[in-house]
Design brief:
Layout: E1 9-12, H1 16-25, E2 27-29, E3 35-37, H2 41-51, E4 57-64, H3 67-75, E5 88-94, H4 101-106, E6 115-121, E7 129-134, E8 147-148, E9 151-157, E10 160-166, H5 179-194, H6 203-209, H7 225-235, E11 238-243, H8 255-266, E12 271-274, E13 279-287, E14 299-301, E15 306-312, E16 320-323, E17 346-351, H9 359-371, H10 374-378, E18 385-393, H11 394-407, H12 413-418, E19 426-434, H13 435-439, E20 442-443, E21 445-449, E22 460-465, E23 468-471, E24 474-477, E25 485-486
Length: 495
Amino acid sequence: MINIFNKLISVNLQSNEDWEQLQNKCKIEYNDKISVNSLSDWGLNILKGGLHKYVKSAVIEPVYTCKDHRNLYSNFYSKKFRHTSKYTQRIHFFTISNVDSDLLILYPEDFIDSYVGYTVIRPVNDRCLGRTVFDPHKITDNPNDYFLLRTVFNVNINGQKFKVSGYPYTSQDRDVTVCAHSALWGVCRYLSERYSIYGEHYPFDLVAYTEKHSGRTFPYRGMTYSDYCNILSEFGTFPLILQLKKNKFETDFDINEFMNLSTYVESGFPVLASFQGHVITLIGHTVDYTKTCPSGVSFIDSSFFLKQFIVVDDNFFPYQKLGYDSDPENDYRNKKNKYSISSIVTAVCPLPEKVFLPAEKARKLMMDILDTYKKRLETISKGPWITRLFVTTNSSFKRRKIEKMENEEKVDKISFFIKDINMPHFIWVLEVSSVDQYKNRKCIGEIVLDPTSNVSDMPIIYIRIGDIITVDGEDMSFKDNVIEFEQYTHNLGER
């Protein structure tokens, strides 16, 4: 019988003993006589490992009805002989100490800035971390070095509204859900929270979408990228498969597919990356601006500067860094499975419907065009030039153009002109920068392309090099205009 009261419990987190106290206060009551800790040792270690440097207190909701756990309970756990609870706890974390639970409700505005996020504690064996959202910029030492997906989640704490901006995480329960379900749930929940076109789906919905040609879909069954594609298609996206290796034993890494993978991550799509046996979600990246560019080439893809992917892996705390084999900052170097970027075998990207033209074909078409503009580029800066390819919405692209223009001392007349160009809902954009400009997030050129076209159409919307823009084959020069302009970085959580 559940307690009818839901009095918030405050816990300071200054020492190891405080974290143990947090675990002891997370209890689920099965009846009047039995209560057990729902925060397992595994869950405690995951939370403590990722948060202890940044949070100083927590507030526990001792009775919380989680829609995701309730979905699994109704469809699976209620059918098991071993009794478990349909209720959960939810823990909220703060960067300040001594958060009084009563003051939190009476004066929530005093705690908004210190709010880090929350995690749901499920009454399941071991892998107890359910729906979790933390703000990555509040739990890292160098937030400006991280380019990653975030969206706003509304949080209600006993009637008071809070918000946290982050990427959703959940662990697998090793019973009805596996790592792929956790990764897919994160992709779907991120998209449904950010875009109204996608409906909200629950964990068992994804289990039900799993293809049945390999037998029953639960309890535990391994999944393949064909399962991921089927689930993402049922959800409403249009998945595209990238083959970076022929198999997990292959040593050669397809550099063209890697550039395509980087492009989709750069575009702000959460990408499922498979190591064959495990799947994680790529949600962003870090950049190494110190790398020396290769000589003898005119154009270098921005993926050359990619240092690590930011990933969500249900086995670990969210926002891990997946680097190259030799990277000492690769978070997987000291783990049991020493994965690296070169461990990725396949990747599945959930594209929106109206992006017909894939990255590979868009890049080839735009690079062929850019090659004919080398002389114009040379009048502005010396090569090599860095190219950065991504897809975005035309509304967001134009809005950022105007916002950046308004913040500049000198008005960018071309950006003001671009706002009146008719464009499709999504656009492919190729930015061009010198090396120094790229490091300072500036551009001297861009090509915009219609992603609903094919290579035989006339897909180019406009070409801009410096103070000249070409539309429908006609050059228009804007004298005394700015030559360089801001990169578009809104896709990956621009602050």
